[in-house]
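pasting for ref
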Amino acid sequence: APERSARHQRIMAAPIQVSAGMKRSIEMVGDDPESDDMLRITPLGAGSEVGRSCVMATYKGKSVMFDCGVHPGYAGIASLPYFDEVDLSTVDALLVTHFHLDHCAAVPFLVGHTNFKGRILMTHPTKAIFNMLMTDFVKLQKNNDSEALFTEQDLKAAIAMIEVVDFHQEIVIDGMKVTPYRAGHVLGACMFFVDIDGLRVLYTGDYSRTPDRHLPGADLPSVPPHVVISESTYGVSPHTPREEREKRFTDRVYQILNRGGKVLLPVVALGRAQELLLILEDHWKKHPELANVPIYQASALARRAMTVYQTYINVLNSDMKAAFEEANPFVFNHVQHLSHAGGLDDVGPCVVLATPSMLQSGLSRELFEMWCGDANNGVIIADFAVQGTLAREILSDCKSITSRNGGEIPLKMSVDAISFSAHADYPQTQQFLDALAPPHVVLVHGETGEMGKLKRALEGKAAADGKTMSVYSPKNCQSVEIKYSGSKIVKVMGKLAENPPKMGDRVRGLLVKKDFGLMLLAPEDLPNYTKLRTAALKQRQMVPTTVPLTNIRFALEALFEGIHTVTTLTAAEIKQRRKDEGEESSDGEDEAKEEVKEEAEGETGEEEEETTKGKKKAPAKKKAAPKKKAVAKKEEPAEEEIVKQEMGEESTAPVDAEPEGLSVNGGALTIMKRPEGDRGVEHALIEWYCEPLTDMIADAVLSVILQLEDEPKGLVEAEEMHKAAIAARDKTGAAAARLRIVAAMMGVQFGEPDVNEETQTLKMRIDNVNAEVKYATRDVECDDPGVKARVEVALERIDVAIADASFSRTLPSVSGLSGSRGAV
């Protein structure tokens, strides 16, 4: 852990910032200033190194982790990615490209020992082999002295979380669109194409565009990405053609065998091992003289995993699919299984494929130490040799090596590097990026020197072609920050889309955002396109008041004249509104009273019929309908009176008839009076459904009702005196009147004061404390600082309020009633 911490301190660096927005192939229709439009790419591993691939990409609150492997050159915790640099609980998804340890071996640790809660995606073959590979990894940890990273329980938990995905299948994760493409490299390997709110990122993982004996080359995504995170394993180095490599390989094997030596092929159990076995099997068939030379596969895991290769024929190349129609090409006639090194004691020339590929431990290390002192033997490194491993060391022309027990062993066997590593070389990388033409390329999975060469080569090639391409080569924990502001596209759906708007038209509806998608809908379409439902919020406000509704109506008509309509509501209309809204009557006896009222009216009608037509009771009983008609008319007196007035008839309604309620704008807002009862005081009940315009009307109604209430005692008279004194230029009278106004207002807040007009003072008793206001100087004397402060603030506000009181009173009141209650 201390070693890891120290190494961490050395690699920390400032983030690389790119301010230019990426606008290729998109139309800018608007920016969202509140959104996080900075793409942040941070290698937690594989930054200027090969091993422990783990790259974080964060954009608009979404976080994706690409791969999660260990470093083959380190052991225990030191081999893990730098998980402590990020909050793993915020990671939405882990996308694993393939089953190699440097890309997937840290997944069980991530699941079992961190707060990671996201989803994990792999292809079907990758998950199948991952399970086998990690099971062996757990057993290997038990046999080693190094610190165990995870347990069998951690592995089981990880397996349970893994979701499988097919090539070209789009998966949506919290609004992010994830699509895997073929990557070549090994069985099931994929590249991940991620779309986050229009920002397209392609993570290649390990890929190869060149087909080999059993796998097709990597796909080219049909949609160009804005950012490509690419491996740079081989930098600017080119691969020799496959046929040349295969011939060189078989020739070298033949030379070692011909001199009586043994051939050691350190390989990864799955991937390149199968490719080499296919090459050797084909070569042995073509050369009968080699029939007696055994080929050993020293990996039980590789033997078990052959069933996976036979199961997923559909992901192999066309040649292998054709071969399977005749026979299983992975059933080798010249290959034998080897369980331990002791099985080779009495064996002469042979070929052995043993794991691991970097010679760090295991059977390959054991055989290497046994054979390296014999010049007849030979080792062929067929994979990329990672810095810090024994495989890399012996390629540097060393004369001896340090054995596992610490002793020196001379290195006499021949050492060759013939790469069958299915990683993209420079020509593949250049052609791949030329075809995609991304504005930004982030290089990972490469050594510092090779990455630097590749960066310069790609930038030079883009400049020569007249293209703009920014290339970055961050170190571990160094972030690349790229500003991206994409288009905001809103889909008009439902009824709003029936008549497509023309350019310049305004479209009004509900803007619904789901993940990163935007829809504009009519409110009634909301349930059809979303899981949302519309609702109306009804506001009720009770205002204590004794002002009659007639006065309130006249005041509102004066205020709203020509803008909003004010009408009366009858008891029947109020009852119907409650019934339509599914509400019960506020008065529990309303319904009973209505029935009594109708019964009384019916009896009156019968008596009138008897008086008019004598004792003919039978006809009177038949006139039930006219009785109901009469009642119906009596339910709408206001409308009846209006008709009579228009016809020139004399109104029969009482002059002082009080309406049951008021309605503004056809019921958008209603006002009903409630008598003194359970609520304690007589009050007005204002009801309306929340909506900006109606909310403003409600504020105006509330203001009118409060204005119509009684003003403080003596305030109106004092204001009249003040106005008269000002008109007569009577300064003494004006001062006395102003003092009375202040006294009336102070009385509302603190209780009626004692007024001395000669000394211009007010004396009050507030909270059992005496206070005196010297109004001429605005001084307040009080022993309690808190009370004194309250009085001073009140005095200041009263001065501001009455500064133009004399002028305001010369104008018509909003109600036209000058504050008097009950007058019409």
